Structures
1.
Amino acid sequence: MRLTLVYLSLALVTSHSAQGTPPPGYRLVFDEEFNGPFQISPGTGWGPMTSPLKWIAHTPYSGDFGDAYFTGPSEPNTPDPFSLANGILTVSAYQDPAINNHWRSGLISSIDQTGHGFSQALGYWETRLVLPQGEGVWPAFWLLGMESIQKGARTTNEAEVDILEAYGENMNLAHQTVHVWAPNGSQPYTTNNTSKVVGMTTGWHVYGCLINTDLIHFYFDNVEIWNTPTPVEATQPLFVMIDLALGGGWPVDLASPVHMEVDYVHVYAP
């Protein structure tokens, strides 16, 4: 579940590095360049995450959200929402050929339902994207805690860090949110920010997040756009998800298909 409230951040501050390089003192621990073959679980995309796979095609905790079914790379009777060409992953949302007035789309997760795969405690996360446009698109790059996946249920508070959410009703706004989820589904802590940016749908931009024990820093094209105190839950191992969801509280009024492009995903450890 992902929620976003709106606070406008108009100042851009604190550049930390050039594109594709970590902050000083960090080393690359997860490197996805999408040069192929695409290392994702086949079929419905539910896993398990066995070597050399890096991704599954659903959230590992329960399934879908929003107004499109997330779909595996080779599910029967459905087009593949993923394609690779020239080092770029294209994630496509399209009208479901088997269900009238419904959509399918793609999500990638770096762990499976048993917790196998990649997660990282503290560090720097980065991706480079071209976002789709159109009423109802809801792309995101986000991190989630491991505890509920490893134990099969959430038994303690757990962090979610939304490095980027964007909504088709205004694609000049980049949303960032930090949630803490309680076992009963409530949010004992949440804080959020919305930054006015330019060109998310017309060119490549880098979205980054540095999590330290004191602050979480959010970056757009290597320039800091927001920081917020780090809840203790966000210092635990987090895994990566990127998705092209639809809806998010907004009506979906799109010509099928729509596409999001992903250049790379990098994670650095201190």
2.
Amino acid sequence: MSIQVRYFASIRELLGRSEQQIDGKDILSAADVWERAAAMPWPANALVAVNQEHARPQDPVRDGDEVAFFPPVTGG
């Protein structure tokens, strides 16, 4: 099982990378992806998308999915 993980804006800067592939063995949710890929606590106010659709940390993730983490977006 392989999951493509992408990071945007300040989360990308925090981790020092914009993307990575992870082994999805034993991964059930977007929160599990973060835990395996980032190895640090979930950032305050971080948002997640699974296959380019907004998701919640507890939403399921499957083999071949793309999971993206990004800070809240503001603008006018």
3.
Amino acid sequence: MGKSTDNHLKEDKHIFVKPGTEINLKDYDTDYTAGFKNKEDAEEKLQADIASLTELQDKLYSSCSHSLLIVFQAMDAAGKDSTIKHVMSGVNPQGCDVTSFKLPNSVELSHDYLWRIHKNAPLKGKIEIFNRSHYEEVLVTRVHPEILLKQNIPGIDSADKVDEEFWKRRYKNICEFEKMLFDSGTIILKFFLHVSKKEQKKRFLARIDKPQKNWKFSLADLKERALWNEYRKAYEKALTNTSKEYAPWYIIPADNKWFMRAAVGDIIVGTLSELNLKYPKITEAEREELAKAKASLLGEPD
């Protein structure tokens, strides 16, 4: 196995967005594999981490002291769905939820933009996965500022009123929101699955050519692809302004799905391991009750 199998990737400079770093996505290789030799090497590591995650989730759920929020953001076809499917395959569904944020409905638009996010934050002991998230509010809205007009924001009655100060306020709002969650016991991990434009084209063509994947493709995907550079700039701004020690961003190379999944799994397991989670200890009185229950069960006739 490659040397990466012995070390967590949480601090890998090619992946971890150190708070305060000015991000230029050209500096992050979409084909990086952190020393893994091949797909088999990464798969072996992933399977080991899936087994570890099963036990860690059980301790997280039973101790009920923390919760885990995992945020996935990416360009289309980067592999969010498949990463969630593979990495979380060993997780007990009872302790994990996945929320996919689509366009806000009329009720959600009547509230502040973080309202629908907050009400889906994880309960203590649970894992919550956001497949797209509150970051859409500084990504797609930055590329398409006209969307903001539906939110009836005071002072924003036209797209040209959305200036850099507006985005700075949003980054500040998001950071404060995540800090509040963190202070309440929620561990936050944010993954940007970084796919190249060349690889996205390849995956779009596969969706068109394979009937079983046709449903995953829309002409709207091509319209957004045409805005590739605008989206890159929006991601660079968001990553630069919102990666914090309490809510870090990881730029996960996504051209090789096998590495992408292994990296995400490794970081999740590494983060939960640092919590030193333990099963709840019972009191002496509870232990005595268990002894009585055991004696009662053993005393029953067969």
